[in-house]
Structure formats: C-alpha cells, structure tokens
Amino acid sequence: MSIEVKNLSHVYSLGTVFEHTALKDIDFSVGPRDFIGIIGHTGCGKSTLIQHLNGLLKPTTGSVIINGKDINKEMPMKEIVKRVGIVFQYPEYQLFEETVYKDVAFGPKNIGFSEEEIEKTVRESIELVGLDFDEVKDVSPFDMSGGQKRRVAIAGVLAMKPQILILDEPASGLDPMGRSEILGYINKLNKEVGICILLVSHNMDDVADFADKVMVFSKGRLVKFDTPKEVFSDVDELEKIGLTVPDSKKVLLGLKEKGIDVDTSLFRTRDAIEEIIRVVGGKK
Amino acid sequence: MNNIIEVKNLSFAYDSDEPDKKALENVSLSIREGEFVGIVGHNGSGKSTLAKMFNGLLLPTQGDVFVMGMNTKDEDSLIDVRRTVGMVFQNPDNQMVATIVEEDVAFGVENLGVEQSKIRGVVEDALRAVDMFEFKGQKPHQLSGGQKQRIAIAGIIAMKPKCIVFDESTAMLDPVGRSEVLSQMHKLNKEDGVTIIFITHYMEELIDADRIIIMNDGSYYKEGTPVEIFSDTDELKKLRLNVPETVELADGLRKAGMNISHNVLTKEDLVEAICQLK
Predict the structure, then answer these.
(1) I want to staple B215 with a disulfide (CB 3.0 to 4.6 A). Which of A20, A62, B41, B169 is the partner?
(2) How far is B84 from chain A (nearest CA, A)?
(3) Is residue A36 part of a domain?
(4) Which chain B residues are Cβ-neighbours of A208 within 8 angstroms?
(5) Is the predicted ipTM greater than 0.90, yes or no?
(6) Does pLDDT of A284 surpass 50?
(7) pLDDT digits (tens, 9 = 90+) for A139-170
(8) Does one domain contain both A283 and A220?
(9) Residue A192 counted as domain residue
(10) How far apart, in whole angstroms, are the C-alpha atoms of residue A252 and residue A273?
(11) Is A280 close to B176, i.e. CB distance below 8 A?
(12) Nearest CA in chain B to A178
C-alpha cells in the first residue's frame, strides 16, 4: 500500500471573493509501513491535506494515487475508505451507539463486511487499542473516561481494516499518561500490524519519539519532508514558521553554545541523556 | 495576602439522581490575590468542574465557594462574582461571538452595561494589552489559533477581572501560539497583578507558576511549588501525570550519578548546572 500525491493544489471557494489557496503544489509519496509525522502551524493546510487522502476533498488540481490508482477517477468511495482510515480531532465526539460493540461495528457494517467478519474485526480492533473486549463490548461508550472513549473511536476506524491510518492530534486533551498510552498503541499498530501511520501533531516530542519521517507544512506548502534529525536540525527556520524543536535538543544546543562538544543532532530525551553522560561524565 | 477565592468542603455531583457519583469530593483550597496557580490532574480528576465553580458557572452540591468573600450561591452577588473572575476556555472558535475582532472584544463589556462612550477606549486598551490592536478590524476566522485565543483573552480583560481562569486554553494551539498565550498570562500577572489560575496537561507550562495544585479522582491531592511538585517523577506518574521534559532529562542525568540539583526546572538552568560539572 502506497500513497502518492502529485502536484496537488486545493483552492477553497474558487472564483468567489473568499477564494483561498489552502494547498499549493504538494508532491510526496509514502510507502507501506511508514510512520510519518505531519507538523505545521495552525492553518498551514495539514487538515485540508488529510481530507484529500481518503477522498473527502477533491483536489482543485493534481491527484492522489493509492496503489497506482487515482482515487478520484478509478476508485469508488467504499474502496477508498477500506484502505485509508482517518481519525479526526476529538473523535470521541462522533461516538453515538448504545454500546462499544455497536459503535465499533458501524464502519465495517457500512462497507459491507459479513456478520462473521464484523465480529472478528470488532474484537481485534478493540484489543488493538488496549481495551478488554469482553469487559467493554456491552458498555455505553458515554460511561467511559476520555482516554477510553478516544480509544473506542480509533477502534471504530481500525475495524474497517485500513492499511493507512491518519490521525489528527490523537493525543490532544488527554492527560500525560493518556497521551503516552494512545501513542504507544499507535506505534504498535505500525510496528506489529504493519499499518502505515500519518500522525498530525503540534507536539514535537511525540513526532520525535515515533516518526521515521516528518512532513513540515507552512502556509499551504510542503516545505520539508525528511528524517526527524534533518527536520529538527534548523531551529530558527522551524520557529519562523510557528514550530519548535524538542526541549532536550534545546538543552544540547545550549551546552554547545557554552563550548561543551555534544552532538546537537540528537533530539530524543533518552539520547540526550546518554550523550551528556558520554561527554560530561556520569559519576561526578 | 488576601484570598481572592476560597473553596470550603466543596462536593459536587452532576446528576442529582446520582448524588453519590461525585465529580468533586470535599475539596478545600484557597487562591491568594496576585498568585499564578497551576491546577493539574488526570482526565476526570475534577479540574474543569472545579474551574467552573470559581465564577459560579457551577454551584456546589455541598460546601461553599467564596469569591472576594461573596458566596457564589448568593444570586445577588453573581454578577459581581463573574466580574471578578473571568474564564478562557480551550477552543478559541467556540468563544468567538462577533464577525469583527473589536466587536468580539466589546461583547462582554457591553453586557456589563459600560457606557457606550467608554467602550471603544476599553476595547482598544484590551487589544493593545494582548498585542492585537492592529487586527481590530479583521474577521476572527482569518486569525491563527494563538491570535484567536488572544482575542478571547482581550474580551475577558476588557471586563477588568481581578482573576482569570484558563481552562486548557493552550491545548489546541501550535507551539508558537502556546507560548504567545502563556507569556500573555505572565504579563497580566506581573504587570497588572491579575490572579491567574491555569489548568493544563502540559507540565512545562507551569515551571514559572507560584504554586501547583494536584487534583486526583475528584479530590484535592496536594500542592507545592513547581520544584516541590516536579521532584517526584514516580509519584506524578502514579497520578497519570508527568514532569516537564527538561526535568525528565535532569532526572536521567541524576540517576546516572550526575550531581544536578532538584531546583533545576528550566533549560537554561539545566545547561548551567551541567556546565558547572564539566
């Protein structure tokens, strides 16, 4: 499963006084099993982009190609949603059924899974997000905690067996433990199940911890698509476009400025700890 | 210093049919005038419910909340309570009521019955205070998230409250938007003496707070200075919280045997502390 976006532009309200170019000349390709972080300031076009990847928005120009097929020309909507799942911000607001089982089963039922397939995929999806199927299946999702609801909502998308899963700020609003739990499960989906992940986040640490590659959007353009190490290498440039680098990296940069010769290309906390110990020494 | 808010034996249940399902249970605490207080706690710990008690949006099932000595249950003083304590919520889009920035900022002031001739000046001052004066004629939807949130703050400060409660007001913003709003809070606190109560899941935003209160399962758990609160990573993790990334980094170095003081919370202090060991 691969996604190719070719020369895509999107203009809202084309031909009216409200005309606004949200995306301009976007080109990239994403391979199977990739874990991609997507970062950018508010209003940079991230959300517009992800809605193109499962056909919710049509490009003004350019194309979105999944497995060699132009989704807007050669793929019916049902086929698209089977391949690409999107978890929007605060997805728990979209829960609506009486029980967790029914809610998670809604998507696969709609795209024509058999009863048997539905039961299997609902069970698997609920377990993939770390909930106990037998414990939660008959519970009302509205009686659950915020973090649990969020996981049920993600399970509802997973149940359609997408090979590409796009998540828009999946950890926002959760307590610190809830954040790391959700991100842990998303990482597992990528590493163990092999689902390609596109993670939209304002949190540089989340992106630094998990993504293999990072897309940086600014004012409707894809300004960088590279490894986290490369993307985080230019602090000034990132700050100019409303972003930043992880704090651990800032500490390394601060040390370098004071003449301590640490490797400033590192950005994860655990790597920074090792590096500082290597250079400054542990037992002192 | 005087207490601007006093919470006494406060309990609260959302559903009067289920009085035992308490969102808050026997909470007592006070906020002093001029303080910058952070409130943290896991999802469902009661933080936001508590915040809504501070200006009478919710009223206690048991116990009392006093704002400048006024009981929030006393209907006659409710307007004064709300003039004293303003609220800024999470989603700036839900807080915009007008189609032009200055009208949006004027909305609250108008409702307070301020004379029409004075409103313009008040609104302009508020916009200047959040560095958004040049945007006064713009449409709110053309602004970035951080800018919209600053407009929401301007709408509150135009009413000149003595205390502002920020309920996860940075959660939906990008890094620059977050730091804009955070520095705005500190400016209001330092320069105008506004009491700030800041509810957040981002621990690093509370490094400069005077005091942090931890809520857990609907109850007051403990409080302390940032240094005190962030000195026990393991305890915080048990409460579903964590420490700022810099503190985690300092902790890791400490565990490897480096002698770094627990007073180190900021990046700058950590760099300094490491340099001294070199």
Answers:
(1) B41
(2) 27
(3) yes
(4) none
(5) no
(6) no
(7) 999 888 888 899 999 999 999 999 999 999 99
(8) no
(9) yes
(10) 10
(11) no
(12) B240
